[in-house]
Amino acid sequence: MQYRDQFRIPPAFLLVMAISSFTTATIIIAVGWSDLYAFVRGLPSENGTELFWVLLGVLALEGGVAWMIMSWCRIELNAHGFRTIYPPFIWKWKVRSWNEVSQIYMDTLSPIGDLGGWGLRIGSVGPFNRAHVYAFNEGTYALFTLQSGRTVGFQIQRVEEFQTLLQTMAPSIPVLDPKSTLG
Q1: What pLDDT score was predicted for residue 69?
Q2: Pairwise CA distance, residues 8 & 158, whole Å
Q3: For the whole model, what pTM was predicted?
Q4: What does the angle CA 163 – CA 1 – CA 147 come to, to the nearest 5 degrees?
Q5: Are 152 and 143 within 8 A, CB to CB?
């Protein structure tokens, strides 16, 4: 038995990134067109080199952010525990065994309202101070408190399947569900 899911930041943000990239490039080119043109043609210019590298740097930064937006966060739960991967923040699977989990707290969360944004959110959420929450959509979240004191959380889209997996694979771990999100 296994539970798998994957999430990513809403792709509509790519439109925001495209508008931002276009606007920034237009401003840089408009301000220093003559210097950039001279630099590209190999002619002496006052600020052509600097403007070229600024333009290239801004476009690279925008491309990197767009890549982060398109990255998929994947989670898997099975008999051994759970694991997550979310490039470029976590390059290889981060594995946690059921022995490391002291409790599971179920809650309904909103990435913006409760966590302050999308993606990997590091900080505090509710009663948990050292939380790493993978937040992408509003809904039911499982927050796994580890023996180390850290909390790792992610969204659960198929609640019945998740509940069955917990009852089968980790029956000794207490599940706190004050809002009855598991039904």
Answers
A1: 79
A2: 17
A3: 0.79
A4: 60
A5: yes
